[in-house]
Specification:
Aspartate Aminotransferase, domain 2, Aspartate Aminotransferase, domain 1, 2 domains, globular
């Protein structure tokens, strides 16, 4: 069986985890946490990076930092994971969904301005598959209307937009180190990038359950106490140790994944030329991280048949999000602004093929041959 995903492993994880355990500093904030945070700050040129237990936690922390309150509105695409919306709903916000672009599956930046009201507080672009949203336009809109931009860059670690790391462009960026991502903390895991320096001090407080504990450790106060809203947004040192192994090998992991992605892309060209599928589109001035390789087929019926066909050949492929605006909670906590021209129809066509660091080139070839077999086409590469 070729699974859809395997968590990335470099071979150094156990040694780093052993070191973390022997340090007697397991609750977080130790040497491995500091190493990971410094690595993110240096590589992605952000003033402050803080590890979190998950990208969900990062998004929730972001919602607190920008003071989301009851009655505020937050604009995002509906084609995303539930955490993108939930983080702001938990603070009382209404989610305003807008349509996506069919080429990238990202928020359609031309639909954002029409969704803005006097209650709008933030825009949350989601960089689907590690491919950048049109950030110049989004930033320009945010400045025009004085809105926060919170990048959901869960899938976008190591991706760039016009040379800038995704997650470092908006006021706040949120990363995921879930086991399905390019770099993992060994299960869940995340980071928040604080790109607005005025938010750094409060971010440290909110992450430490609303206390000024970090200031106490730096000798800035003689005792720490409860000073603000907050929660337990500090990951364990074991998580950080596992992540450090991946970050130390980030370039190598990125290269392997990009090679797999390109092999899929080249290998499936004939099927696209014959109009059986559509391959991903990468726009100019964007570098992606090969987080996933997806194809689009004619409709949902073909998608289900292809997934079943691949499963019978021991290849696990999956579809992705059910658009949030069609979900029970999405209808309760949000609304769709404008027409759903592409969100639902494009989501029903999309299939994700196996993609992970330890996937072999031979396994990629098997997946490609299996897709050709479904469409009864010959594959000779």
């Amino acid at each position: 069986m070729i699974p859809f995903n395997k968590p990335p492993r470099t071979g150094e994880e156990l040694e780093y985890i052993k070191q973390a355990i022997e340090s007697d500093k397991l609750c977080g904030g130790g040497e491995f946490s500091r190493k990971c945070e410094k690595w993110v700050e240096e590589h992605f040129e952000t003033p402050k990076a803080l590890l979190t237990p998950s990208c969900t936690a990062s998004l929730e922390l972001a919602a607190i930092l920008i003071d989301i309150k009851e009655g505020d509105e937050v604009i995002m695409s509906s084609y995303t994971f539930v955490s993108t919306a939930n983080a702001f709903v938990l603070r009382g916000a209404k989610i305003v969904f807008v349509d996506i672009r069919p080429d990238t599956m990202n928020i359609d930046e031309t639909k954002i301005e029409a969704a803005i009201t006097d209650k709008t507080k933030a825009i949350v672009p989601v960089h689907y598959a590690g491919v950048a949203c049109e950030m110049d336009t989004i930033i320009a809109i945010s400045r025009k209307y004085d809105l926060w931009v919170i990048e959901d860059a869960a899938q976008a670690v190591m991706s760039t937009y016009k040379g800038k790391a995704l997650g470092s462009i908006g006021h706040i960026g949120c990363y995921s180190f879930h086991e399905t991502k390019n770099y993992s903390s060994g299960g869940e895991g995340g980071a928040i990038l604080i790109n607005s320096p005025e938010l750094i001090e409060r971010a440290e407080i909110v992450r430490e359950k609303g206390t000024n504990r970090n200031q106490f450790f730096r000798g800035m106060v003689d005792k720490y106490s409860w000073v603000d809203l907050g929660s337990s947004y500090l990951p364990s040192e074991v998580q950080a140790a596992y992540l450090w192994a991946g970050l130390q090998n980030a370039d190598a992991i990125n290269e392997v994944r990009l090679n797999h992605w390109q092999k899929y892309y080249d290998g499936l060209e004939i099927l696209e030329n014959q109009s059986y599928i559509t391959r991903p589109i990468i726009c100019n001035e964007i570098e992606h991280n090969a987080h996933m390789f997806y194809i689009k087929v004619a409709n949902v019926d073909v998608r289900e048949k292809l997934i079943d066909f691949l499963k019978n050949l021991n290849v696990m492929a999956v579809f992705h999000y059910v658009p949030l605006h069609s979900a029970l909670a999405g209808k309760k906590f949000g609304c769709f602004n404008g027409n759903d021209t592409f969100t639902t129809s494009e989501s029903e066509r999309l299939i994700r093929l196996p993609m992970y660091y330890n996937l072999s080139s031979a396994e990629v070839s098997k997946v490609i041959r299996s897709v050709y077999k479904f469409f009864e086409c010959s594959y000779e590469k």
